[in-house]
Automatic annotation (TrEMBL):
Protein name: NADP-dependent oxidoreductase
InterPro entries xrefs: ADH-like_N (IPR013154), ER (IPR020843), GroES-like_sf (IPR011032), NAD(P)-bd_dom_sf (IPR036291), YIM1/Zinc_Alcohol_DH_Fams (IPR050700)
Lineage: Bacteria, Pseudomonadati, Pseudomonadota, Betaproteobacteria, Burkholderiales
Species assigned in the record: Comamonas squillarum
Any Pfam family hit: ADH_zinc_N_2
Ranges for domain Enoyl reductase (ER): 10-330
CDD domains assigned to the protein according to its UniProt record, in alphabetical order: MDR_like_2
Gene3D superfamilies listed in its UniProt record: Medium-chain alcohol dehydrogenases, catalytic domain (3.90.180.10), NAD(P)-binding Rossmann-like Domain (3.40.50.720)
Length: 333
């Protein structure tokens, strides 16, 4: 089959179109013909080697974390899917490979595609939708009337998280450029801060939750936005010891995580707030919940650009440049 392959880690490493073996699904897996695949900053970070200590992928590697497509084969133990089903998924860590013609997906990570949307729109959802869900529902337990600050509201995670937070009944603040202010307000943001003209910590106070996705320099400022007892949930780190336990990291790596996060955890404790790092996990059950929200109209996919499959390296470069409004998707012919 055709796939885009990463041969070596590095920021300047370019994906190579190659012919590789078609995957064979295991007894608990489903073989999916990929119609569309989401392109994420996580793909760029893995390519550059930022996560190779946490996620030790062997090379060569096929990137691509979220897909939409059609079931073509099911393993002997698969019960919820059959050939011809339209599905979508966030592929499991260490089992990614969406930038290809076919991919084998664990049944526990797969869900039926939301009705009423295209394959391209469906492929834009899994990673950002699950990230927002696990941050706001699982970790924050966000409730009606609470206030949440979602950074980078025009991005992939931000554009979904704003909609989810509004559905949960929260008041939402976000950062965006002046050019994107109307866009994020249209998603439901109540307060929009032009990050080029204002410091968010000078404007926002008494918030219950901050969803941090920016460089680590913004962590200290994010703490000052929170009320006592509030929660700072970071998508960009540093990883904390609880994350090390969750992934069963070796003792040395867990110690490194404890050391890297010691400063921000100490500052959070001083202010009486919580700090946690989120690295999203695949979940069929949560994708079904998200599909129901999409079908009800509570949230909608936000797709910035769709690239043809042969332009996958260009799509990754576009995402890495950081100017996408919503998600970027590649489409197979």
């Amino acid at each position: 089959m055709q796939a885009f392959v990463l041969d070596r880690y590095g920021k300047k490493s370019r994906l190579r179109l190659a012919h590789v073996d078609k995957p064979q699904p295991r007894e608990d897996e489903v073989l999916v013909e990929v119609h569309a695949a989401g392109v994420n900053p996580l793909d760029a970070k893995i390519r550059s080697g930022e996560f190779k200590r946490i996620l030790p992928y062997p090379l060569p590697l096929i990137l691509g974390h979220d897909i939409a497509g059609e079931v073509v084969e099911v393993g002997s133990r698969v019960q919820k899917f059959k050939r011809g089903d339209a599905v979508y998924a966030r592929l499991d860590d260490l089992h990614i490979g969406g930038f290809a013609q076919w991919v084998a997906v664990k049944e526990a990570s797969l869900a039926h595609k939301p009705q009423g949307i295209t394959m391209e729109e469906a492929a834009s959802i899994p990673l950002v939708g699950l990230t927002a869900w696990q941050a706001l529902v699982d970790k924050a337990a966000l409730r009606p009337g609470q206030k949440v600050f979602i950074q980078a509201g025009a991005g992939g995670v931000g554009s979904f998280a704003i909609q989810l937070a509004k559905h949960l009944g929260a008041t939402v603040a976000t950062t965006a450029s002046a050019a994107n202010a109307a866009f994020v307000k249209g998603l439901g943001a109540d307060t929009v801060i032009d990050y080029r003209a204002q410091k968010f910590e000078d404007v926002l106070h008494g918030y219950d939750v901050v969803l941090h996705s920016q460089p680590r320099q913004a962590l200290g400022a994010s703490l000052r936005v929170l009320r006592s007892g509030g929660q700072l949930i970071s998508l960009s780190g540093p990883p904390d010891p609880d994350f090390g336990k969750a992934i069963a990291a070796p003792r040395l790596l867990t110690w490194v995580m404890r050391w890297l996060s010691a400063g921000i955890r100490a500052k959070a404790k001083e202010r009486g707030v919580g700090y946690s790092f989120l690295f999203m996990q695949a979940s069929s059950e949560q994708l079904r919940e998200i599909a129901a929200l999409i079908e009800s109209g509570a949230v909608r996919p936000v797709v910035d650009r769709v690239f043809p499959f042969e332009c996958t390296p260009e799509a990754l470069a576009y995402v890495e440049a950081g100017h996408a409004k919503g998600k970027v998707v590649i489409k197979r012919p």
